[in-house]
Design goal:
This protein is an alpha+beta fold. It has three helices and four strands; from the N terminus they run βααβββα. The chain has a four-stranded mixed beta sheet with strand order 2-1-3-4, with helices on one face. The chain is globular and about 30 Å long.
């Protein structure tokens, strides 16, 4: 898929603290569950060190923290396909009224 076709981006932090917590496996899990119109991108740092692995879904600016590879299918099914963020996984710093 070309970047111009993607309507959403899933950015998965791959910086030091997130990688120590398994962000490489989270990225791999998203890559194993492709969704039409969604581009999965490994990013250097999302600036939220200590709360990772961090995942940011754009353009909605939905932040997920402490994501495990086992939780990725729920994000894919419920959020990326179904359009409903997974409230229990939301990063409360940016989504304080959810969870």
């Amino acid at each position: 898929m070309s970047e111009t076709q993607a309507t959403k981006q899933v950015r998965v932090c791959q910086y030091q603290s997130c990688r120590k917590l398994g962000a490489d496996r989270v990225l791999e899990a998203f890559e194993l569950h492709p969704v039409d119109g969604v581009e999965v991108i490994a990013v250097h740092c999302l600036g939220q060190c200590g709360n990772g692995p961090m995942v940011l879904v754009l353009p909605e600016e939905v932040w997920y923290c402490r994501v495990s590879p086992q939780e990725v299918p729920a994000v894919v099914e419920r959020h990326l396909i179904g359009g409903n963020p997974v409230k229990g996984m939301l990063y409360r710093k940016f989504h304080p009224s959810n969870g």
